[in-house]
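lol forgot to send this yesterday, sorry. struct tokens for the thing we talked abt
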């Protein structure tokens, strides 16, 4: 007599002490359920789309950009960084990129532009204080 066996493979990691091998089952229905996947995938919607797309939201939010403000920021960055060392430019670049990355999900780019400008101006102020302290230290060493 031939027994009707089917092989199924589990996607779950093996438990400690168990061997990695296919499990045997004699029920074709159990095998079919395993092949169909979890219930969220059986109803026609893939689970990855459910994770990536918010079903309640039919359209993405509108990107709010002020081209004039963005142009002004670009001009301010270019004019204020003239004469800075490569190390200072690298520090500014790293800090501003970090700021932009932190605010990447904010659709209001006017607000992001303002945050970047405030961060930049804070960095320039810190660099000015640092430069003034270096000049003061050099003057003290020279006896002034």
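and heres what i got for the seq, position by position
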């Amino acid at each position: 007599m031939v027994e009707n066996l089917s092989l199924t493979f589990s996607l779950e990691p093996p438990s400690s002490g168990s061997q990695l091998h296919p499990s045997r089952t004699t029920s074709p229905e159990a095998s079919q359920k395993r092949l169909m996947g979890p219930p969220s995938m059986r109803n026609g919607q893939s689970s990855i789309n459910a994770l990536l797309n918010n079903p309640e939201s039919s359209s993405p939010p509108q990107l709010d950009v002020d081209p004039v403000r963005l142009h002004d920021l670009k001009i301010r960055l270019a004019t204020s960084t003239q004469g800075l060392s490569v190390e200072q430019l690298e520090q500014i670049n790293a800090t501003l990129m970090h700021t932009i990355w932190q605010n990447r999900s904010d659709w209001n780019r006017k607000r992001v532009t303002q945050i970047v400008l405030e961060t930049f101006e804070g960095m320039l102020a810190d660099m000015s204080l640092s430069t003034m302290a270096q000049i003061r230290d050099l003057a003290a060493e020279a006896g002034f």
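DSSP finds six helices and two strands in the chain. anyway ping me if u want another try
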